[in-house]
Write a structure and sequence with these properties.
The chain has one domain: Up-down Bundle (Amino acid/polyamine transporter I). Helix content is 67%, strand content 1%. It contains 17 helices and 2 strands. The protein has a two-stranded antiparallel ribbon. The longest helix has 37 residues.
């Protein structure tokens, strides 16, 4: 039997920067983690081939699925405000060993988020510059990777206040640009505006009716990944139990509304009857803006570039705080807990993230090219993040059934998490290339190898878990009590909570 006991919080000067950010900053942490500009330009349009002119309805369905999972994570964040976020939630809601595995997988894929976005930065900027100035080589993408990595590393080094301000500014800019452009599309569409795009009338011939809408919603669901990114900032947030919950739910609702509006605008402007041919390449939005509004395309281009940097910045915040929390528990190297004496930033974790981001990005980018490498990295990230959301839904049921019986609601803490799990099954199968549905395509190399990489990391994690459980079990259990050593106002851990050996 292992006993989980409450711990005494450290002095106020210890740990991450306390009460350094508020609702606005953590709201934009989740918003930028979803990369709305990049998602509007690339992720969501990938579903147009299946939903056609009914893609706005697909986005609405995806929003509902996202809110189901966001509810579970927000409810857990209300009681467990910790930098360990999902690892802590699952450790408390299900079992410390499961919490370790979730934390192990989560820090792995979050460390790859900057790589994903830096690859997109490279293959967005270089070809665009080449198209305008032919003397610039179309394949000279890697300098932009280094520049982007330096920007986010510098912000991360300066602490959460600096990186949060960067995320807020960049996030607000990309949202404003795409909303304004969408408004211009709606105005120019004139009499072609129609609410019929929220039905099945315009689904393409090969995917008629609701089947096409559901298929399109799978790709739209992937655009919401990252809504939980506010959670790892709990120990640096003012009134974290209220603030993180509001940020997770608020970001999902705000960006959901942006996705619905921008998708509607693009559909009626391009033509719902031919929207199945809409290109998921980010250049499609740039080309539309260029053809319709002249130099405004430059603003759209900068918004897409801005979105990649903002998302990479949010990913660095998540990965470094998660690594810090796991290292504090003793399951990752203790060096990752080292903080800057002034900025209270996890400087070793930030440095490690910079090395990983540049090293992995250049390695896979030079091997397969940035666009193909992007697909490889994205596949691995999505497989893990969707799985984490599903386990977090289970943890919500477990936590409230075991420790908050007086608050337990069969709707909020029972049915909603179960529906959240079911809603993400198609997205998980699609990301993994498992052809369980007609609209799922089997993955081809190198994207098909991503599952193997994820599997190897999982097996490695299980080996580490076995060793820790045998020699230092208290470190694994500690993952579920990390909030006690950090966030102000955190609920005390129930004393003498037993965990079976």
């Amino acid at each position: 039997m292992t006993q989980v006991r409450s711990r005494t919080a450290p002095p106020s000067g210890a740990g991450l920067a306390r009460e350094a950010v508020g609702l606005r900053e953590v709201l934009f942490q989740s918003i930028t983690a979803m990369a709305p500009g990049a998602a509007v330009a690339a992720s969501i349009p990938a579903g147009a081939a299946f939903a056609g002119g009914a893609l706005p309805l697909s986005v609405l369905l995806a929003l509902v699925a996202c809110l189901l999972a966001a509810n579970s994570i927000a409810e857990l964040a209300r009681h467990l405000p910790a930098a360990g976020s999902v690892g802590t939630y699952v450790s408390r809601g299900l079992h410390p060993a499961v919490g370790f595995v979730v934390g192990w997988m989560y820090v792995f894929i979050q460390a790859l988020v900057p790589t994903l976005l830096l690859l997109q930065l490279g293959f967005t900027v270089a070809p665009t510059l080449n198209s305008e100035w032919h003397s610039y080589p179309a394949d000279l993408w890697w300098p932009w990777v280094v520049v982007g990595a330096l920007v986010i590393a510098a912000a991360g080094y300066r602490g959460i206040q600096t990186s949060a301000v960067l995320g807020t500014v960049l996030g607000a800019f990309e949202i404003v640009v795409f909303v304004v452009l969408a408004g211009m599309f709606v105005v120019k569409a004139g009499g072609h505006n129609t609410l019929a795009v929220f039905g099945t009338k315009y689904t393409p011939d090969g995917h008629r009716g609701l089947a096409g809408v559901v298929a399109g919603s799978v790709y739209a669901t992937l655009a919401f990944a990252g809504f939980e990114a506010a959670a790892p900032l709990a120990e640096e947030t003012r009134d974290p139990r209220r603030t993180i919950r509001r940020a997770v739910l608020g970001a999902s609702l705000v960006i959901g509304a942006v996705y619905v509006f921008t998708t509607y605008a693009a559909t009626v402007f391009f033509g719902p009857g031919k929207f199945a041919t809409f290109n998921s390449d980010p250049s499609q939005w740039v080309d539309l803006a260029k053809a319709s509004y002249g130099l405004f395309w430059v603003v759209v281009f900068f918004a897409i570039v801005n979105s990649t940097v903002a998302n990479a910045n949010a990913g660095l915040n998540v990965s470094t705080r998660t690594a810090f929390a796991l290292a504090r528990a003793g399951v990752l190297p203790r060096q990752l807990t080292r903080l800057h004496p002034r900025y209270r930033s996890p400087v070793v974790a930030v440095a490690a993230q910079f090395v990983i981001a540049v090293g992995v990005t250049l390695a896979v980018g030079f091997k397969w090219g940035p666009s193909v490498a992007f697909g490889f990295v994205a596949t691995g990230i999505v497989i893990v993040i969707i799985s984490v959301y599903m386990v977090a839904n289970l943890a919500c049921i477990g936590f409230f059934a075991r420790f908050r019986r007086e608050e337990f609601s069969w709707l909020r803490h029972g049915l909603v998490p179960l529906l959240g799990i079911a809603a993400f099954v198609p997205a998980l199968l699609t990301a993994a290339g498992v052809p369980a549905f007609s609209f799922v395509s089997k993955l081809t190399p190198p994207s098909s190898w991503a599952g193997t990489v994820v599997g190897v990391w999982l097996v490695l994690g299980l080996g580490v878990l076995a060793w820790l459980w045998t020699h230092h079990r208290e470190r694994v259990v500690e993952i579920g009590t990390l909030f006690e050593s950090g966030a102000p106002g955190a609920d005390p851990v129930e004393k003498d909570v037993s965990t079976e050996s």
